[in-house]
Amino acid sequence: MTQANPFDQQRPIDGVKNIIAVSSGKGGVGKSTVAVNLALALSKRGARVGLLDADIYGPSLPRMMGALNHKVDIGEDKKLQPVTRFQIKLMSIGFLVDEDLAVVWRGPMLFKAIDQFLRDVAWGELDYLLVDLPPGTGDVQLSLAQKVPLAGAIAVSTPQNVSLIDVKKALDMWRRMSVPILGVIENMAWFIPPGSSERMQLFPKGSLTKYLQENQLEKLGEIPFHPNVGLGSEAGIPVVESDPTGEEAKAFSAVAERIDKRFRL
Ligand SMILES: Nc1ncnc2c1ncn2[C@@H]1O[C@H](COP(=O)(O)OP(=O)(O)O)[C@@H](O)[C@H]1O
Ligand SMILES: [Mg+2]
Fold first, then answer.
1. Mean pLDDT for the stretch of residues 229-255
2. N or C: which end of the chain has fewer CB within 10 A?
């Protein structure tokens, strides 16, 4: 008897050209921050972008995108209408239930939610749908890769070795599921202290660069640590929107350019 291949359920989303997973081994490395700023940077290049918050237990995109109290409507097509902010189409469990209620959800409900977010949202025509995943290598990641063909996965890491250990696990997972790895974004790569012009390391530099070289993986970019990045997320106006010519925004734009050149122009 042959076993059913779970990847056989894979179906594209009508109108959506490239679905890109934003992953990390650990929480708190800036995955959601990268996802929102990358979405904005791609949009500023003229791409049509959607952002799906698949972090069911810790949805943070409504807050980061300044859409905290938005609720979604159901359109005539019976589909959930995404919330649009800064020209990005957004969907998050945070629009459907209270932030603190999502944590009591159990496995089957969770899968149903991911499935609905992929199929029952009126995404329309998109060049990119970025999916902000929960940290780690769990069921949500697996379920996403089984349900839709992913154009690729990005992993976000901080420079130090403890983060590298976890990012390796995330990269291994994508490899096992035959998802193309677009590369790694090193977040909080450096900091320029006030009154100085010299870059300072916040974390000891680990072996990320060496690991990437040895495994023929790309470093998609380095994002500096800057209080404005965090403040932008808290205020609901990501730094690429609030200070598009600043150094932080430029770092995100450089990553967006690399991705966009690969898939669109
Ligand atoms: N480059 C950065 N500079 C300053 N603060 C950052 C940067 N990246 C992330 N942060 C902050 O670090 C915290 C964790 O980021 P977040 O994107 O929520 O991580 P994750 O989604 O990986 O859990 C947030 O408070 C965020 O504002
Ligand atoms: Mg997050």
1. 96
2. N
Enclosing H/E stretch for 41: helix 31-44
How far is Cα 208 from Cα 215, in angstroms, rounded to an integer?
11
Which whole number is the average pLDDT over 11-36?
Answer: 96
- Please tell me if the CB atom of residue 57 comes closer than 6 angstroms to any atom of ligand 1: no
User: Average pLDDT over the chain, rounded to whole?
Assistant: 91
pLDDT at 162 over 80: no
Residues 128, 47 contacting (CB under 8 angstroms): yes
Does residue 24 have its Cβ closer than 6 Å to ligand 1? Answer: yes
Average pLDDT of the segment spanning 119-135: 96
What percentage of the chain reaches a pLDDT higher than 90? 69
For residue 104, what pLDDT is reported? 66
Q: Is 124 exposed, middle or buried (0-12, 13-18, 19+ CB in 10 A)?
A: middle
Distance 159 CA to ligand 2 centre (A): 18
Pairing of β 88-92 and β 219-223: unpaired
**Whether the CB of 244 sits within 6 Å of ligand 1:** no
Band of residue 99 on the pLDDT scale cut at 50, 70, 90 = low
Query: Whole-model pTM?
Result: 0.94
- Domains with residue ranges and CATH for the chain: 13-263 (3.40.50.300)
- Work out the angle at residue 163's Cα, subtended by the Cα atoms of residues 160 and 169, and round it to the nearest 5 degrees: 140
Is the Cβ atom of 29 under 6 angstroms away from ligand 1?
Answer: yes
What's residue 204's pLDDT? 79
CA distance 90 to 163: 28
How far does residue 14's CA lie from ligand 1's centre (Å)? 32
Tell me the DSSP string of 2-16.
PPPPGGGG--PPTTE
